[in-house]
């Protein structure tokens, strides 16, 4: 999901988090994000998480990979 869509969707994961809830955001520019997201998908599959969440994560992974392929100069190890 694009940042602008996540922020504007009242039902997004970001907006469902309460103000006192810690969150962790992965960005497509982060080279580690693809491995982290892949690991999350594998564990969610093993634990039989709701298939819609897994499908959403797989879609995000595809978008991360596409973005990285289109923007290699903006892809990096995080600071």
- How many strand units? 0
Q: Main beta sheet: strand number and arrangement?
A: none
What's the SSE pattern?
Answer: HHHH
Query: How many separate helices?
Result: 4
Low-confidence stretches: none
Overall domain count: 1
What value does the average pLDDT take? 94
Helix content: 55-70%
Strand residue content? under 5%
Span between termini: 23 Å
Structural class: mainly alpha
Cα shape: globular
Cα-based radius of gyration, to the nearest Å: 13 Å
Strand and helix layout:
Blueprint: H1 3-8, H2 13-16, H3 31-46, H4 51-70
Helix pairs in contact: 3-4
Descriptive notes:
By secondary structure, the chain is mainly α. The chain has 4 helices and no strands. It has one domain (3-12, 25-74). Helix 3 packs antiparallel against helix 4. The radius of gyration is 13 Å and the shape is globular.
Give me some keywords for this one.
79 residues, mainly alpha
Brief characterization of the structure:
This protein has 79 residues and is mainly alpha-helical.
